[in-house]
Design a protein that fits this description.
The complex is a heterodimer of chains A (254) and B (1086). Chain A is mainly alpha-helical and 254 residues long. Chain A has helices spanning 14-20, 27-50, 55-71, 85-101, 136-164, 168-174, 187-194, 198-221, 229-242. Classes of the chains: A mainly alpha (254), B alpha+beta (1086).
């Protein structure tokens, strides 16, 4: 574990994945990198597009953000004890976009009497993670995309698990019971369709819910620093999702 | 990623963000599914889910659950905050009270100040924001009711009362220490939580809300003034003081003791009279006897009419209450020896009993002879004791005085810092009136230290109005304003009607008619006008007549509004009258058709226009008369016949009507947030001038028909392009509502009259002065010559030029001089120094005349291998220092013949690059910082070199700077923190916190009061050194890289790199002499 002047230490969460991700590393680290970018591409790209960039511009900026983020190893500047990965990534993104606007080398001092030029890094500084300089509404959009990403990952995990056990049909039939949607068909009809007893069906639903809950907790657990924060983060993501009720949505939401 | 748009909304929560990512399951429901019961009997899942709290309002980050209370000005909700999750009270201004931008800004300012008050007995503010333009803030949800509900329950529990008021006084003192006054302390503002802990709530806010309630300026607007200090109740201009908060605490204490407030009366005027004139006392002698005398004395001392007779601070009150609780004598009243003894005996019962026994025995055993002596001795003892008590009292009073002075000073400093931020916000809203008012409060009273820094002078300069001339007469509201048709005169009605000639703006005539409501020039007759006044009469004034001023038509109607048909032919005078609200009658319009003004007295044709209202305007060709009514009806009439032509669409409450010069458009103001344009032909209407932050009061179209000028309650005059509707100019300067605007007939000058009693004249042709052109190149604080009259700019190509200051003109260069180091003295002459590399790769320090950059010579720097890092010269030019790499600093003694090099080696671990070097002003110390170290090294270089390591930064230290007195060292790191150190002992004395990214430039003004910093967070901030508080913030489009005060304090320069080329920009501030001798005459005034 490396020790930096500002005392950064890395816990065993998503930060680990980052530590491993390297552009110049072996197959394992490239896989980690690929995983990292794939996972957060959506939220980051959506966010950049909301800032008014065209689709191609946004794709470039997203690419550049990830490259720079990893190349400059700016995540090292974050204090994982201080903030959630979500807020840190957003902070870094906002920072990067501001930098892009300032023609990339704005933090470099040139000429004059002093030659200081050490702020070449891309990330926000120690403690920055918790306070990205971004309008709350923008941050919430990012957080909504993030919530979708997290939900999606958890669902994918459950689906993969069912598929591995050759129970994909069961998954497809029961996933509508994961939420609280009252539009889900009555248990009886689904039981009949699957050829299961009602009690057995209920047990299956219960199991799937448990699997989903576990997967979701694990996903969120990787983005926070303390297991005690998982519930808070869950609630936050739920609320931020729910705040997008009709009439509250951004005008450019598609 | 593909997003399915047409997926139906979730029936449960209405969410429509169902997407491929979540396999088209509703994300909110997925989250909520987690909370379903865990039993395997999933039948429970089919039972209806518990009601999900729906937010009443979409407030960022909160679920608004229920409305708790609603008052005239605001509404309080119970809400759930998401992160961290907790129940909060959310207070929001109602649309009515939030109407003015000023009000909103003040609300936010106050809430921000309050959010800094973290005290166990102050209701904490959690967050704030705006919803649909309505500001809100959240605070702790206090569920235990307020003190008003507990008055009777507390009755007679004296110690509990004393402890409670003591706690409140502590909380109030805490706020006072931070420059925040409460201004409306009363039982209703003291809240309790479930556990019964008291909290002082609504600091400053309650009053703020009431103040704006009716735009009234009397204490009546505050509702019940029961708890207000007499000086505040008597004058709303009195914004409250420490003493008035102490009074209010006393009033609360009084009520808790007596069961009723100090003053009661039927009706507000009677109550006010009692508060202002009567001494507070406990009326019912019998009941009062049950109340401990000390508590009564304490309460009455707080309630003293003269603020100087009250406790000097809330802290003193709290301490008195603690003395009472501890059984010690209170200071409020000298206590006799006997009482002192009795009190002491209560504290030391056993000892007192023993001593008392001794005294009794002694007295009993004494002979008569001794009795006399003993009595004398006793008397002397009492006298001595009394003197001692008085002495102690005096000492205590002096200490208290000193403490009060100290606390007063701290408070003034804090208030100063807080007010400067408020000034900046006011300026951003063009509220120059508020800005000037706040600035004026910080001119130092005689004998008081001056706290003002660069920011004060800078803001003062910005708060000066932009008009070229101001006319004013006794400060009365300007109720009418017009140029004469030939443009030669400008008349305005204030206390009297003043007529100025427009060539010189000299006063031509003064019409002694008070309360003039309106006037109209008679076309074709110079200096003849009709006037309507509040006496219901129409007057005529003819300057050249033997009797220039007379009533021509008495009792026409309320506050006559006069207009004259501007065309040849018979003279038509339209007189509109004001509606009468007591009888609920609409204003009306009467037209008089006459051949000569004098005829109006004797007769002429008089015709009443039915149902017209009382606002009148003639079209320029005289063919139409427009009238507008309070109910919003606009009617066009044929003026010669009095026949109604048509009715135009609806406006609200018409207060101003004007035709465009071509007569095709009618502009109406209706005390709305826009003006309305009516097409006379088609009758269509459209809003214009919608960007005012207040209501539009008057509007007029320019003579060329292209521009609309508006005046509004937001104190600004604005110009709008008639074709595009876009705002083209904004004039700020009035300190209250702008009530009248008028174009000069040539369209070059716009006059505006306001409730502030001034008429301001604005040039429309050239509009505002252009911003100063930035200068390409770099500069820094070392590039200023010590006399401040010259400075050096390095061009991007490496050449160096000398410029003048303050005019920035180029004096010499640009030349190839080498790498700039800074100014210093050499052989008694000020010179500019640069570093040059010689052919043999050695370096030399070249000198250039500070008057014209002529070469003066060079000093070889022996032993210096390039590169030399962070080169720096001592102020006297005697020493030169630069980083040599590897944690080593080279120090050259330029005064010695050999220019000896001394190497200062620091135990910095790695090969370390010097980041910053700075000599102390006396040249005896050198501060240094390095890459790979977060410490500052402070070298003593006068005698045997030795250093002190200053630790505390978390990032590398990039900037070092001494104050001019050499006592304080400022250091900034690449993190975002600026630290201050005492040079004498190396102790950290404070931090300037606020930047969000690394500091890129730093300077301290030469008066030592203000620190300027620029950061990667794209801000330039000014800090008050005494309080360590931010006093100004400028958001920049890109980060600035250096910042420097001009030595005379009249400018702040910073370097920006827009599109890669560095440019230097300047913020100017007038010198103190200019600001303290009143506004300088504006350039261009005729």
């Amino acid at each position: 574990m490396e020790k930096y002047p500002w005392g950064v230490q890395f816990p065993t969460t998503r930060w680990d994945e980052l530590a491993m991700a390297s552009l110049h590393g072996d197959a394992e680290s490239r896989r980690a990198l690929d995983e990292f970018c794939r996972r957060y591409w959506g939220p980051v790209n959506k966010f950049i597009r909301r800032q008014g960039h065209s689709e191609t511009e946004a794709a470039d900026l997203t690419q550049e953000f990830f490259l720079n983020f990893l190349e400059a190893r700016s995540w090292r500047r974050a204090d994982p004890q201080q903030g959630k990965f979500r807020t840190f990534l957003l902070g870094a993104l906002v920072h990067r976009l501001a930098k892009a606007r300032a023609h990339r080398d704005r933090l470099k001092r040139g000429g004059g009497t002093e030659i200081v030029g050490f702020e070449e890094s891309a990330g926000p500084r120690d403690g920055e993670a918790g306070m990205p300089t971004v309008a709350p509404a923008e941050a919430e959009h990012f957080d909504r995309e993030w919530a979708l990403e997290i939900l999606g990952s958890a669902l994918t995990e459950v689906r993969a698990d069912y598929a591995a056990r050759d129970k994909l049909r069961l998954y497809e039939a029961l996933k509508c019971y994961l939420g609280t949607q009252p539009t889900a068909p009555a248990y009886e009809s689904v039981a009949a369709e699957l050829g299961l007893a009602l009690a057995a069906l209920k047990t299956e639903v219960f199991r799937m819910r448990q699997a989903f809950r576990t997967a979701l907790h694990r996903e969120i657990g990787r983005t926070v620093n303390d297991p005690r924060q998982v519930q808070d983060e869950l609630r936050y993501l739920r609320n931020v999702m729910a705040s997008q009720l009709p009439g509250m949505r951004g005008s450019d939401e598609t | 990623m593909p997003r399915e748009n047409s997926f139906p909304a979730c029936t449960q929560c209405g969410c429509t963000v169902s997407t491929a990512e979540t396999e088209f399951l509703c994300p909110v429901c997925l989250f909520d599914g987690l909370d379903l019961p865990e039993e395997s009997d999933a039948a429970a899942a089919l039972t209806p889910t518990p009601e999900r709290p729906r937010s009443l309002l979409p407030i960022q980050g909160h679920t608004v659950v229920a409305e708790l209370a609603r008052g005239g000005m605001g509404v309080v909700y119970r809400a759930r905050q998401w992160e961290p999750e907790r129940e909060v009270a959310l207070k929001m201004l109602l649309p009515f009270s939030a109407a003015s931008a000023d009000m909103r800004a003040r609300f936010q300012r106050e809430a921000q100040a309050l959010s800094a008050l973290e005290h166990p007995a102050i209701l904490p503010i959690y967050g704030m924001g705006e919803h649909d333009g309505l500001p809100w803030f959240t605070m702790k949800l206090a569920t235990g009711g307020n003190l008003a509900e507990r008055v009777s329950a507390l009755r007679g529990r004296w110690r509990e009362i004393a402890a409670l008021v003591g706690t409140l006084a502590d909380a109030v003192q805490f706020a006072h220490d931070r420059g925040v006054l409460h201004r409306d302390l009363k039982p209703g503002n003291i809240l309790f939580d479930e556990a019964g802990q008291p909290y002082v709530a609504d600091f400053g806010l309650a009053k703020l809300i009431h103040e704006d309630a009716a735009h009234t300026q009397t204490a009546l607007a505050l509702g019940t003034p029961t708890y207000l200090a007499p000086e505040v109740a008597a004058s709303s201009a009195h914004r409250g003081t420490v003493a008035s908060d102490v009074y209010s605490l006393g009033a609360v204490l009084f009520e808790l003791l007596a069961g009723h407030p100090p003053f009661q009366a039927d009706g507000l005027p009677a109550l006010l009279a009692r508060i202002v004139s009567e001494e507070a006392r406990f009326p019912d002698a019998v009941a009062a006897a049950a109340i401990p005398r000390d508590l009564r004395v304490i309460a009455l001392r707080c309630l003293a009419k003269n603020p100087a007779h009250r406790y000097a601070s809330a802290r003193e009150l709290a301490e008195e209450l603690r003395r009472y609780l501890g059984g010690e004598p209170i200071l409020a009243r000298p206590v006799g020896a006997g009482e002192r003894l009795w009190r002491w005996s209560r504290r030391q019962p056993a000892l007192a009993t023993a001593l008392a026994a001794c005294v009794v025995i002694a007295i009993a055993g004494a002979a008569g002879v001794w009795r006399q002596l003993r009595q004398t001795e006793a008397a002397r003892a009492v006298a001595v004791q009394k003197t001692e008590a008085e002495q102690a009292q005096r000492v205590r009073a002096e200490t208290a005085q000193r403490q009060a002075e100290q606390s007063e000073r701290v408070m003034r400093q804090n208030l100063y810092a807080a007010d400067m931020l408020a000034v900046q916000r006011a300026l951003a809203e063009h509220d120059l009136g508020t800005a000037r008012l706040l600035l004026e409060t910080h001119r130092p009273p005689a004998g008081q230290p001056d706290l003002r820094g660069f920011e004060w002078r800078y803001f003062w300069g910005r708060a000066q109005p932009g008009n070229f001339l101001t006319l004013a007469h006794e400060g009365h509201e300007v109720s009418a304003l017009a140029f004469s048709p030939d443009g030669a005169s400008l008349a305005y009605a204030s206390r009297q009607v003043m007529v100025h000639d427009t060539a010189t703006f000299q006063l031509q005539a003064r019409i002694p008619m008070p309360s003039t409501q309106s006037f109209a020039f008679v076309p074709g007759m110079k200096h003849v006008m009709f006037l309507g006044n509040r006496e219901h009469d129409v007057h005529i004034w003819a300057a050249n007549a033997p009797n220039p001023f007379q009533i021509v038509r008495p009792r026409v109607g309320r506050w006559p509004n006069v207009a004259i048909r501007p065309a040849v032919g018979p003279l038509v005078l339209a007189v509109g009258t004001h509606p009468n609200f007591t009888t609920n009658t609409e204003g009306r319009t009467v037209i008089f058709t006459i051949n000569h003004p004098r005829e109006l007295t004797t007769g002429g044709r008089r015709q009443v226009l039915p149902d017209a209202g009382g606002v009148v305007a003639f079209s320029p060709d005289g063919r139409l008369l427009a009238t507008g009514s309070w109910q919003g009806k606009i009617t066009l009439w044929e003026p010669l016949t009095g026949a109604a032509v048509k009715t135009l669409g609806n406006a609200r409450r018409v207060i101003s009507l004007r035709f465009s010069p071509d007569g095709r458009t009618l502009v109406a103001c209706s005390h709305d947030d826009s003006a309305w344009l009516f097409d006379v032909e088609s009758g269509t209407q459209r809003p214009v001038a919608r960007a005012h932050a207040g209501r539009v009061v008057d509007a007029e179209i320019s003579p060329d028909g292209r521009t609309l000028a508006t005046g509004a309650t937001d104190q600004t005059v604005r110009l709008w392009d008639m074709a595009t509707g876009r705002e083209t100019a904004r004039f700020a300067g009035h300190s209250y509502t702008v009530s009248r605007v008028a174009w000069s007939p040539d369209g070059n000058v716009l006059a505006s009259g306001g409730q502030d009693g001034t008429v301001r004249l604005w040039r429309v042709d050239g509009t505002a002065a252009a911003e100063e052109e930035p200068i390409p190149g770099h500069s820094s604080r070392r590039m200023f010559a010590p006399d401040g009259r010259r400075w050096v700019v390095s061009h991007p190509d490496g050449k160096t030029a000398l410029h003048g200051y303050p005019n920035l003109e180029r004096i010499a260069g640009p030349n190839e001089l080498g790498r700039p180091v800074g100014f210093g003295r050499r052989e008694g002459e000020s010179a500019f120094f640069t570093l040059r590399t010689k052919r043999d790769n050695d370096s030399e320090l070249a000198r250039w005349a500070s008057t014209d950059l002529r070469a003066l010579g060079a000093t070889p720097l022996a032993g210096a291998e390039m590169p030399l890092l962070s080169p720096v010269l001592s102020a006297d030019g005697g020493r030169f220092a630069a980083g040599l790499g590897r944690g080593e600093i080279g120090l050259w003694d330029l005064s010695s013949p050999q220019h000896a090099l001394q190497r200062l080696q620091l135990p910095v671990p790695q090969a370390s690059t010097t980041l910053a070097l700075e000599f102390s002003p006396d040249g005896r110390r050198l501060a240094a910082s390095f890459m790979d170290s977060t410490s500052v090294y402070l070298w003593e270089i006068a005698g045997t070199p030795g250093y002190r390591e200053l630790t505390g930064h978390k990032g590398f230290v990039t900037h070092l700077l001494f104050t001019a007195d050499g006592q304080t060292l400022a250091s900034a790191d690449g993190d975002k923190v600026i630290k201050l150190w005492s040079v004498a002992d190396g102790k950290e004395t404070g931090s300037l916190l606020g930047h969000r990214l690394g500091v890129l430039g730093l300077d301290i003004s030469s008066d030592g009061r203000t620190v300027a910093s620029v950061s990667g967070d794209q801000t330039l901030r000014l800090w008050n050194l005494a309080t360590r508080r931010e006093v100004a913030r400028f958001e920049l489009p890109v980060p600035a890289h250096t910042v420097a005060f001009a030595p005379d304090g009249t400018g702040l320069l910073y370097e920006r790199r827009d599109s890669d080329s560095p440019r230097i920009l300047i913020h100017r501030a007038p010198g103190l002499r200019a600001t303290d001798t009143g506004p300088s005459p504006s350039p261009g005034a005729p």
